[in-house]
Design brief:
- It is found in: Cell membrane.
- Homodimer.
- Belongs to the alkaline phosphatase family.
- Its EC number is 3.1.3.1.
- It holds the Pfam family Alk_phosphatase.
- The protein contains 15 helices and 17 strands.
- Helix 3 packs across helix 13 and helix 12 packs antiparallel against helix 13.
- The protein has 2 domains: 362 residues, Alkaline Phosphatase, subunit A (3-Layer(aba) Sandwich), CATH 3.40.720; 58 residues, no CATH class.
- It has a 10-stranded mixed sheet with strand order 5-6-4-3-7-1-8-16-2-17, with helices on both faces. The protein has a 3-stranded mixed sheet with strand order 10-11-14. It has a two-stranded antiparallel sheet with strand order 9-15.
- The longest helix is centred in the C-terminal third of the chain and has 21 residues.
- It is an alpha/beta fold.
Amino acid sequence: MTAPAVLVIGSCLILGSLGKPSFPEQEKDPKFWNTWAQQTLKNALSLQTLNQNKAKNLIFFLGDGMGVPTVTAARILKGQLSGQSGEETQLEMDKFPFVSLAKTYNTNAQVADSAGTATAFLCGVKANEGTVGVSAAAVRSQCNTTKGNEVTSILKWAKDAGKSVGLVTTTRVNHATPSASYAHSVDRDWLSDSVMPAEAVQDGCKDIARQLFENIPDINVIMGGGRKYMFPKNQVDVEYPDTAKYSGIRKDGRNLVGEWIEKMENKNGHYVWNKKQLLSLNPNNVDYLLGLFEPEDMTYDLERNPETDPSLTEMVEVAIKILKKNPNGFYLLVEGGRIDHGHHEGKAKQALYEAVEMDRAISRAGLMTSIHDTLTIVTADHSHVFNFGGYTHRGNTIFGLAPAVSDVDQKPFTAILYGNGPGYKLVNGGRENVSAIDYQENNYQAQAAVPLSMETHGGEDVAVFAKGPMAHLLHGVHEQNYIPHVMAYASCIGQNRQHCAGHNQGSRLRPALPSIAALFTLIRLLF
């Protein structure tokens, strides 16, 4: 019998006649909590035997904007979607044995953006905001600072080591996070040549969509949105032929998808743009997959058409089936990218449903791999100024009201609030009365303290969850750029491989002890 299972059985909470929340009867007994804690302790003691196997496979889940408050709120939502109170629920990432914190600042920003952070957790080097795949010596939007400042990613390290590699995202495949895997751009917004300054194009800088297909040949799996950046200007979109804003925008006349299809003609390559095409594939017959399911970002999961658009979980399942065929293993980046978009728009419900869907994808990946040879990491690039509070009762819907009205303006307020953003509204000179509107509607914009057209990122540390070989190296508080160095060390790729000699997949790794000379060198640098 597991304590969490006992806890949730029959624990759908209601408010009692006196307005006080009820909760599972067993929680009144100290034995319940003591038994649960003792079982947790037993599990923790079992972790004293560390998993020092060599990681054959690497899976990196990135919840864009998934700060700790978002993780907690998503946990509650997941439970409530299953008829539970929510607080006692476990996300899949909650089950990972090792948790640490990552410091997210960019080299030139206290509160980071997704481009600089992606360069950190994918390339192992902190960078300036707005830049991808280049060091901090590069200056945003200055093309001539690109050359010589390029940095490579763990996706390339894995590819160079003979592994299959892939990236899956709910945003555009040339958006900030995935682009740091393959691109070197001094401006994250250079998504296509048509949005680049003429002088940058003349100086030889490439748009990010083009770099996706040219920089790292033969990425095995690419899935997400972003069709319009790949096709010539005014070429109508295959799914939305009557919507001009979704037509191709490339000024150079190139059809990047067509070029990819031609290149992969004899390599078991397949291009798909809808769910039916994706799920009809036999992964055993696919070595390369390009899936572009929307002209721009993929739709929010709450608004997704389940007949035509694949979920993140479905994309991840197909990706792993293709990648795991390689006897050398694989590397897969998975981004739940629209968590961030929901928060920016002040739409907490959209953001949290995106986080819950990413948790489903984490679960699916876990069922398809083994902790003995697969290192899986879940983290965020940054947080948001999102939070929830108000002394809500146990089991209160996460999108509901606080139990008492404000003692200042005598109006109710939702538990979820933003520090800034588009949810700031004044009605007759005062705060909007949320009881007069549908605050549980999918696109409701939660109230914010400061008016902004778009809500901002938050600057606090983010959680890093890890399981599998060498996961214990992610402990304490670290710089965000430390993460790919751990992944590379665990899988014997990249620059640090002294400890790998003579070790096969699944064998134990032994740390390479530094020499006395190296220690003295380090001491001289530090003091």
